[in-house]
Design brief:
The chain has 251 residues and is of the alpha/beta class. The chain is built from 8 helices and 7 strands. Strand 4 (80-85), helix 4 (101-129) and strand 5 (132-137) form a beta-alpha-beta unit. The longest helix is centred in the middle third of the chain and has 29 residues, at 101-129. GO terms for molecular function: oxidoreductase activity, acting on the CH-OH group of donors, NAD or NADP as acceptor.
């Protein structure tokens, strides 16, 4: 079966994707910053599904570490067919004049530059095989800016533009590119945004049945199962009670 490389696999969409692809007997390269979580996930997936899992602990923001780690893996693991650029975060919710530059750097370095560093390392492997699929985790925030979302929204707008650019650049090589853009999804996303304030995070989803990580993983998996001549370029997914980044119908 195919090798699937998933960044940010320790929680949320990344972990759900790892579980979904493992269920279908695909071998996995999982990356993240939390080594203990990666090792736990590796053990769990190998025992449950009989697949092979290679955990790689690194921060996608560190360019040279990304390059060195990926270059050093055994050749058989470089036969990646699907790259899921999931590592990302939102940090803070402030007006531009009150925003934290540390938060800005964390979002831009992870959501934009980290995605580029990993993609640049992996794309030559896909080209060598003459096929492959890159899934970039965008957001509806990439096309619909909301109050105090400024830099996060900008980072996801960049993911949208990068995805379109990748699609053009990789057109001659038979490599698919899909930008998957979820709306409100209850993962660790809001807990991270609000620096561990779980009550504040729960308020985001008050009166809603938000998407789950598994919902998004199901959609990602579906995109990778289409015939070779079919490519979904851009896909937006929201809960039923959310029509856009700012229109909700809460109970």
């Amino acid at each position: 079966m195919a090798v699937i490389l998933i960044t940010g696999a320790t929680a949320g969409f990344g972990k759900a994707c790892a579980e979904k692809f493992a269920q279908h007997k695909h071998d996995l390269i999982i990356t993240g910053r939390r080594q203990e979580r990666l090792n736990e996930l590796k053990t769990s997936l190998e025992q449950q599904y009989g697949v092979k899992v290679l955990p790689l602990t690194f921060d996608v923001r560190e360019e040279q570490t990304v390059v060195n780690t990926l270059e050093a893996i055994p050749e058989e693991w470089k036969k990646v067919e699907v790259l899921i650029n999931n590592a990302g975060l939102a940090a803070g919710l402030s007006t531009v004049d009150e925003g934290s530059t540390d938060d800005w750097n964390a979002m831009l370095d992870t959501n934009v530059k980290g995605l580029l560093y990993v993609s640049r390392a992996v794309i030559p492997w896909l080209k060598a095989q003459g096929r492959g699929h890159i899934i970039n985790l965008g957001s509806i925030a990439g096309s619909q800016v909301y109050a105090k979302g400024n830099v996060y929204c900008a980072s996801k707008a960049a993911v949208d533009a990068i995805s379109q650019g990748m699609r053009i650049d990789l057109l001659p090589f038979g490599i698919k590119v899909t930008n998957v853009c979820p709306g409100a999804a209850e993962t660790e996303f809001s807990v991270v945004r609000f620096k561990g304030d779980e009550d504040k995070a729960k308020d985001v989803y008050k009166g809603l049945k938000p998407l789950s990580a598994e919902d998004v993983a199901d959609v990602i998996f579906y995109c990778t199962t289409l015939p070779p001549h079919v490519c979904i370029n851009h896909l937006e997914i929201t809960p039923l009670q959310q029509a856009s980044a700012y229109y909700y119908h809460r109970n």
